[in-house]
Write a structure and sequence with these properties.
heterodimer, A: mainly alpha, 2 strands, 63% helix, B: mainly alpha
């Protein structure tokens, strides 16, 4: 697989949010308006690309047995850097994202890409993968935030839309609306991907990035 | 003090439910809620881990990080402490109480990197939580962790019941699987939405 394909697959075919179903928590929580969605996407993109780069450079040094803790430390380091930068230069977005900014550290997308891609591939390919996944994450976040802000608050990026602001659906900007819009978006993606006979996204051990490190056989046995 | 504690429990279980209104811990909520008993096991494990994590991270933040001006290390320290702690508890249970390990232990590794656990640890240290003057702060944080876990358990078990019903019905083709699960989560969240304001008006 060449680098362009690596870059492009993250955008649609393996979109981290809509197809791989990773990183659902920030997707639901920060998409009530477009501005914070963009802030979140940017912060996650920086962490994702840098951690992919660092982990791919370190992949031959990190011992296999303690790789997950090592990845977490690398990711947490970058998250702290981004957090401090955001606090200094974009205080408005920093307070809008609140706790979710530091929770990027437990975002499955980043740990997942470290485990599945950066630990096995070269530096250039890992950066490409990071950029692709970051774009895919950003597209999903902005798409969801656009739907929720336009119809829920009658505005886009804080600017009011003349006609829609008189007919808002406020519930879309609160918690239940988040689940609802996310469900609709996945249904739309399923509709298009099912024509190409792609297996449907499903929650469970297969999608979990830490599946290899935990005793997944145990929890699947329990499920049956 | 007693009133404070009741309010914090009502708020974290019903009003600011971690899963349904704060969107923390969505992965286990959607992933492990197919069977009611599984959901219950996961919920209990989450309560335990949340309480243990708060028990350890709260003093670390207050007496080590704050005292030495190292607040910026919070994220790194917390995630490592929680990961090590969960691993330790799992090993302990496996050795000492194998029967409990068999029923709860399997969920423990799954919760190590759960954002709800880290979220509770961080939230229990916010300004708002530390300024409740008439309750001992540490006790307050522990009750908060317990109540948050309880809210998680409640949401999990309720939602597992809902999913049992959905499994028997047939949604439109594009909605099969994840989308219909999310739509029903939305309806459950809507039900919890109705609790808004209950805590403030409880003692009026």
């Amino acid at each position: 697989m060449n680098n362009t394909q690596t870059l492009l697959k993250g955008i649609i075919k393996e979109n981290p949010v809509l197809v791989l179903l990773l990183g659902t928590c920030p997707t639901l929580a920060v998409t009530s308006d477009v501005k914070s969605a963009v802030g979140m996407a940017a912060a996650a993109a920086i962490v994702l690309i840098l951690s992919n780069l660092a982990i791919s450079l370190l992949r031959n040094i990190i011992p296999d047995k303690v790789r997950i803790p090592c990845y977490i430390v690398v990711i947490a380091g970058f998250v702290t850097v981004v957090e401090m930068l955001m606090h200094a230069f974009f205080p408005e977005i920093y307070s809008a994202l609140g706790i979710f900014l530091s929770l990027i550290v437990v975002n499955c997308i980043i740990l997942g890409r470290a485990e599945m891609f950066a630990s096995k591939n070269g530096v250039v390919a890992s950066i490409m993968d990071g950029i692709g996944m970051a774009i895919g994450f950003a597209i999903a976040l902005v798409a969801m935030a656009t739907i929720r802000e336009v119809f829920g608050a009658g505005a886009f990026f804080g600017i009011e839309i003349p006609f829609l602001k008189d007919y808002t659906i406020p519930i879309l900007t609160s918690a239940p609306g988040g689940f609802f819009v996310f469900g609709l978006l996945i249904a739309i993606v399923n509709k298009f991907l099912s024509k190409k006979r792609k297996p449907k996204a499903e929650f469970g051990c297969e999608g979990c990035p830490s599946a290899n490190s935990c005793n997944k056989t145990d929890c699947e046995k329990e499920a049956e | 003090m007693f009133k404070d504690l009741i309010i914090i429990i009502m708020t974290s279980v019903l009003v600011n439910n971690y899963v349904l209104s704060r969107f923390l811990g969505i992965c286990p909520f959607l992933g492990v809620s197919k069977k009611t008993n599984q959901a219950f096991g996961m919920g209990v494990a989450v309560i335990l881990v949340m309480m243990m994590a708060t028990l350890v991270t709260w003093p670390i933040q207050r007496y080590v990080l704050d005292a030495f001006g190292l607040e910026y290390l919070q994220t790194i320290v917390f995630i490592l402490v929680i990961a090590a702690l969960v691993q330790l508890v799992e090993m302990f249970l496996k050795k000492v109480i194998p029967s409990l390990h068999a029923s709860l232990g399997i969920y423990l590794p799954l919760i190590t990197t759960n954002c709800a656990v880290l979220g509770v640890c961080k939230n229990s240290l916010t300004e708002e939580m530390l300024t409740k003057a008439d309750t001992p702060q540490f006790l307050y944080a522990m009750i908060y962790a317990f109540a948050s876990g309880l809210g998680f358990l409640l949401a999990m078990v309720l939602f597992a019941g809902v999913r049992n019903r959905i499994a028997a019905s047939k949604p439109p083709k594009a909605f099969e699987g994840t989308p219909i699960t999310l739509i029903s989560a939305s309806i459950v969240a809507l039900a919890f939405f109705g609790f808004g304001g209950i805590a403030e008006n409880l003692f009026k």
